[in-house]
Amino acid sequence: MTRSEGATAPASQTLSRGIRILEVLADAREPLTIDELAARLEVHRSVAYRLLRTLEDHGLVARDSTGRVQLGARIAALAAGVAHDLQAEALPELTAIANELGMTCFLAVLDRDECITLASVEPRHAVATVAQRPGARHSITVGAPSKAILSTLSPAEWPVEVDERLRAEIAECAQRGYATSHDEVIPTVQAISVPLRLRGGQRPAAIAVVHVSSPADPAAIAARLARSAAAIGEALGG
């Protein structure tokens, strides 16, 4: 097959729908019924069922005692292979930050026009924390990690059009070294994030903390994040 033929070949609808099921389940905050999945995919229940059976055979989805569907354990094994070195270096730092600050700390990367959580650590002894699940994703135009990531790129490298308000926030992040957000991704949730500068060829990244109550000194939290970001970058040859 020539390159031009490969470029114009139709995508596999079945594969696309199977991937979409995994995305829907990753975004869901609880297991879903087959009917709910079929509705979100806009397909007949029998089509959703056949797709689920194949995914289930590969361990990518699982059903609970009520028959509801959730992501399977095999997903975690696959995810561990994504940016393995980055995750291995970041996890100890994320853990230290989470336990020191009592806030969930996570690593996010740019993926096309989205910001995706690659790894997340909740504090060990906190009474209540904000969950930030690995695999969670949102538009690169919202959230503190998104601003931190975009601050490391030139406007020509931004994957989407950016309005003047966001452009100003990105410029502020580039100047002071960190970004903040409030109610942009999850209602009532705030975030502080710093860029994670890595060597060439790796996707732009950021580390962040999420919390509900306002911190006394966002700049001090950002400084703590920046120390870990520098340590991770240095360990990876950044």
TrEMBL record:
InterPro entries according to UniProt: ArsR-like_HTH, GAF-like_dom_sf, HTH_MetabolicPath_Reg, Tscrpt_reg_IclR_C, Tscrpt_reg_IclR_N, WH-like_DNA-bd_sf, WH_DNA-bd_sf
Statement: the UniProt record of this protein carries the keyword Transcription regulation: yes
HTH iclR-type domain ranges (all copies): 12-73
Positions of the IclR-ED domain: 67-238
PROSITE patterns (alphabetical): HTH_ICLR, ICLR_ED
SUPFAM superfamilies associated with the record: GAF domain-like, Winged helix' DNA-binding domain
Matching PANTHER family: HELIX-TURN-HELIX TRANSCRIPTIONAL REGULATOR, ICLR FAMILY, HTH-TYPE TRANSCRIPTIONAL REPRESSOR ALLR
Name of this protein: IclR family transcriptional regulator
